[in-house]
Design goal:
Elements: H1 3-6, H2 45-65, H3 67-82, E1 87-91, H4 93-110, E2 115-119, H5 137-146, E3 154-159, H6 165-176, E4 180-185, H7 191-194, E5 198-201, H8 216-238, H9 252-266, H10 270-279, H11 284-293, H12 297-306, H13 311-317
Parallel strand pairs: 1-2, 1-3, 3-4, 4-5
């Protein structure tokens, strides 16, 4: 079978040299200029879109291959967060901004406020690239120390190259201070896979646009961060069944969603769910436990407190399976 057939690209798409065959990549060289994409600027719009989409598909496959390492990482993160630690992302450029995005989403999704990002170049790099900042090793050590990283924390460093000085130095310093450390990189045999407790290789290979690691490498990083943080926080009680019980109903849309979550989680009508949610002052976990176990919000809160906010465990303690 030809490479283009493996990627779901027809021979017709390649006529006139508009779409070279795209074989699965084994080199892991994110900076390489692959011959598969030569002449890219002369390709048709559809051919370019097809190539990028195919590379994104391979990016997700790279994350699937890394599940054993991601599992080790998720277990370590869960252990530190369960003890009251923080989840701290470290990165530069695209990788750092992906960490920033994941951290920002954990509060509205899970009610988890203890996630932050150490971004090379500081706050100014959130919306504008500061490429030189990624080489500043002294700044990395300073930022880790200033954040008072310690043994209860989990630190995740992200870098497509696997060798970004800021990120590697920050992860090394965090490990020295006793934090649980994870490194996510897209090139094998790189420092970011060797320095931390767990190295996660996402081998995405050369980009369609040579060296533009916001593409396949970034897609793989985003998918890996989604999987890592979601798994750890679900395990910590951020979900009941597959429902977002830590979500904060802070606007009209989310209040409607919260009622539906309580209704589904407790097995009651939306009217009953709405009343339970109001009595619980918008606390979805408390509303579900109260409505499903048939107890007051005070009893529900006590049960949740005794079981670390885990709805299933709280219900079980109240005799509800």
């Amino acid at each position: 079978m030809r490479a283009d057939e493996r990627e779901g690209v027809s021979a017709g798409d390649r006529e006139g040299g508009h779409l070279a065959p795209v074989a699965p990549v084994a080199t892991g060289e994110t900076e390489a200029a692959a011959a598969d994409y030569s002449g890219l600027d002369a390709w048709s719009t559809g051919a370019i879109l097809t190539a990028i989409t195919a590379s994104n598909r391979r990016a997700v496959e790279a994350v699937e291959r890394a599940i054993p390492e991601l599992e080790r990482a998720a277990v370590g993160v869960e252990e530190r967060l369960r003890s009251g630690g923080r989840l701290i992302y470290v990165g530069a450029g695209t990788s750092g901004r992906l960490g920033l995005q994941d951290a920002a989403e954990l509060a509205p999704t899970f009610g988890f406020d203890d996630a932050t990002t150490l971004l090379a170049g500081g706050d100014a790099a959130q919306s504008r690239a500061k490429e030189g900042a990624e080489d500043d090793v002294a700044a990395a050590v300073h930022d880790v120390d200033a954040a008072k990283v310690g043994p209860r924390d989990a630190v995740v460093g992200i870098a497509a190259s696997g060798a970004t000085p800021f990120t590697v130095a920050a992860v090394r310093r965090a490990r020295e201070l006793g934090a649980f450390t994870v490194g996510i990189a897209n090139n094998r045999g790189t420092p970011l896979l060797e320095v931390p407790h767990v190295g996660v290789l996402l081998e995405t290979g050369p980009e369609v646009l040579a060296g533009s690691t916001r593409l396949a490498a970034g897609t793989a990083q985003k998918a890996a961060l989604n999987a890592l943080s979601t798994t750890a926080l679900v395990r910590l009680g951020g979900a009941y069944e597959n429902l977002m019980v830590g979500m904060r109903p802070v606007n009209a849309k989310l209040r409607v969603r919260a009622v539906k979550i309580v209704a589904q989680g407790a097995g009651v009508s939306e009217a009953v769910a709405g009343a339970a949610l109001e009595a619980a002052n918008g606390d979805i976990r408390c509303a579900i436990v109260s409505a499903k176990a048939g107890v007051g919000v005070g009893t529900a809160r006590s049960a949740l407190s005794e079981h670390g906010g885990n709805v299933r465990a709280a219900l079980k303690s109240l005799g509800v399976g």
